[in-house]
Amino acid sequence: xxxxxxxxxxxxxxxxxxxxxxxxxxxxxxxxxxxxxxxxxxxxxxxxxxxxxxxxxxxxxxxxxxxxxxxxxxxxxxxxxxxxxxxxxxxxxxxxxxxxxxxxxxxxxxxxxxxxxxxxxxxxxxxxxxxxxxxxxxxxxxxxxxxxxxxxxxxxxxxxxxxxxxxxxxxxxxxxxxxxxxxxxxxxxxxxxxxxxxxxxxxxxxxxxxxxxxxxxxxxxxxxxxxxxxxxxxxxxxxxxxxxxxxxxxxxxxxxxxxxxxxxxxxxxxxxxxxxxxxxxxxxxxxxxxxxxxxxxxxxxxxxxxxxxxxxxxxxxxxxxxxxxxxxxxxxxxxxxxxxxxxxxxxxxxxxxxxxxxxxxxxxxxxxxxxxxxxxxxxxxxxxxxxxx
Length: 389
Prior knowledge:
four-stranded antiparallel sheet
């Protein structure tokens, strides 16, 4: 049995918060985590990636065991900027405990979950030892809150290239709504951003017949996308896809000039009845029905994905219910996460803290919730590697 001191999830959370790891800075956060995992027997590997036009990013891949099944915990130690620090009740990188809560940037998203899993793994290994019949790993990136190009996606590609397979993954994003474990993400909607430019001919407003005003066509094209945000009726596990127009720009300071072009940007969060390609065809069909000279630029942030209810979702939900007494609701709501990369390699679910204060001034999480999440993760480990009779 392991004799090394098991990490305390509260102290480890504080230590991680005290690293001002605003993307792309690591600020020592991965070192703090490595120092907690290595004494437990984890083989810790730094994986650094970079790409043109992006900052180099350090990632940590820590694994114990070499056999299968292989359960991976994926998360990130990078955080968004704190904003005006004078508006914080406590310094954002102090990790202060007050009123039964830990305060600081990353407390909720998601340094507490990283600490909780490390502590859960330590408790599990202390009880079972290193010969537990499989492998446990942590894939921790410093590139989730920004470009997400030199982080999880490239670590997974590197692991696959050397033949390391992951059988199941838990992403520790703050998935819960009102209480820890009340919601588990089993998928995510896709994201597609469109930039529409409608071209015309500039002219004088007194002679509109000598110009070609693009703005009425721009308005009709946007109206052709529908009267409201919903563009379908949803599916078995997804809400209806939604479209939001985020900006309409002309850049014309003169009231007596018909502009040469108008532009609009919109985003679609789509369910599993669409792909980025099918949405592109749908958009062009509607814009073509209006006609005229236009250009459409599309950028896919992610496709939708679903981990169908089954063995993994049941195992994790069962662990939550055993610890909390509640069965988590399965959800596919919210934005994107690094689970969109994991789903190409293994079944994945997201389970973490309540998301009430993520990215906010005075981000905080109850100490009790971190303890609860630690016990849930430990229960997941116990159920993933049952003792042989």
